Structure formats: C-alpha cells, structure tokens
Amino acid sequence: MTKERKQEFTRRITQANRSGLVLIKFEILFAYFDDICQAYEEKNEQEMKKGVRHADAVLKSFQETLDFQYEMSAQLFSLYDFHRRQLAKVLIQNSVKELEQSRSMLQKTYEAFVEAAKQDQSGPLMRNAQQVYAGYTYGKHDLNESYDTGSSRGFLA
User: Fold this and answer.
1) What is the pLDDT of residues 98-157, one digit of tens each?
2) Contacts of 77 (CB under 8 A, 6+ apart)
3) How many CB atoms lie within 10 A of CB 144?
4) Helix pair angle (3-15, 18-41), 10° resolution
5) CB 29 within 8 A of CB 109
6) How many CA atoms within 13 Å lie on the side-chain side of 56?
7) Largest pairwise CA distance in the chain
8) pTM for this entry
9) Which helix or strand (DSSP H or E) is residue 32 part of?
10) How far is the C-alpha of 59 from the C-alpha of 105, rounded, in Å?
11) Range of lowest pLDDT (14-18, 26-30, 63-67, 120-124)
C-alpha cells in the first residue's frame, strides 16, 4: 500500500463514526487484496506474504471487535474465520483464486454495511482530531484539503 493511500485512510479514520470505521476497514482489506494480487503477478513472494499478513490482521480485528450479544456476531465470526483460512490457502497453494472468491463474498458484506451505515447519524469517534475542510481551493490535479489548526489539541497545564 502506498504512503499516500495510508495517509488517506488515516485522515478518513480521524473523521469517521463507528459505521464509517467499519467501511474504512473493509476498504483497507480490499487494498491489501489488491497488493497481494499485484505481488502474485510480479512473482514477489515476500510482498505477497506481507500483504496476506496485513489482510489477516484486518480480518482478525473484525473478529476481535464483534459484540456477541447479537446473534449475527457468531455468523460474522464464522465468515471472517473462513476468509482467514482462504488467505492461508493463498500462501500454501501460491494462487489467488481463493482471494478472488473471498473478495466477491466480502464485497457483499461490505455493501450490507454500507446500507447500515446510512442510518448511523452518530458523530466521529475521535473527538480531539483536526477538522478537515475540503474544497476551499483546488490544486493542479486534485482538491486541496485544509486543516483546522486554531483549536488546542494537547494537554493544558
């Protein structure tokens, strides 16, 4: 994953609510899937292992944050566990066929979370993060973003 992509995800995380954070984690997972496929095409086994490790960490974080008070959590846990095993097969079989199947299944789960996120009107989880304003100015190739630096974000003595 490129440095710019990581910065974009980081910025979005600071502004996200709970549902938005889940969607961002899915997008990060899909970015790692892309990295794995690219490394496979380039026959770069080291980068492929690295991508699988990162993708597995995202799936593991999904499992760890499930609230088992809800019946759906057990089903989601099994789903994420299945996809973690599929990632292991990618390394063992040195094939991305399983990864493509996982992506299509997880895409449907992502779309369900997108619909659920539309109903979430809660505020951002990070309360002391910089505010990002986009659209005040335009760069040569894209939109410039401004950050609010007027507020105090640290400890006061």
Assistant:
1) 899 999 999 999 999 899 888 877 666 556 555 555 555 555 566 555 555 555 555 555
2) 63, 66, 68
3) 12
4) 170
5) no
6) 14
7) 58
8) 0.76
9) helix 18-41
10) 13
11) 120-124
